[in-house]
Design goal:
This protein is mainly alpha-helical. The chain has a single domain, classed as Arc Repressor Mutant, subunit A. It has three helices and three strands, in the order αβααββ. Strands 1-3-2 form a three-stranded antiparallel β-sheet. A hairpin with a 4-residue loop joins β2 and β3. The longest helix is centred in the first third of the chain and has 14 residues. This is A/G-specific adenine glycosylase.
Length: about 70
């Protein structure tokens, strides 16, 4: 098809969200904030992406700064 205009994937919030979800998918249990902090160096964008995932119901925040995928 024709080339799509708009943001490229690299460096977008969508890419950060994908990386955060990949870490959570690969984990065997809840993931600490510190592990999620490793996947993206830019803290404001990383926090925005994580907040968006939580707001969308794709990530569940737990006590003590832990995160996990929602249990279905």
């Amino acid at each position: 098809g024709p080339p799509r205009r708009g943001q490229t994937y690299a460096g977008t919030d969508r890419q950060v969200r994908g990386r955060l979800l990949a870490v959570l998918r690969e984990a065997t249990g809840p993931v600490p904030q510190s592990a999620l902090d490793q996947v993206w160096q830019e803290p404001v964008q990383r926090a925005r992406a994580l907040d968006g995932l939580v707001a969308d119901g794709l990530v569940e925040p737990l006590a003590d700064g832990l995160y996990r995928l929602p249990l279905s």
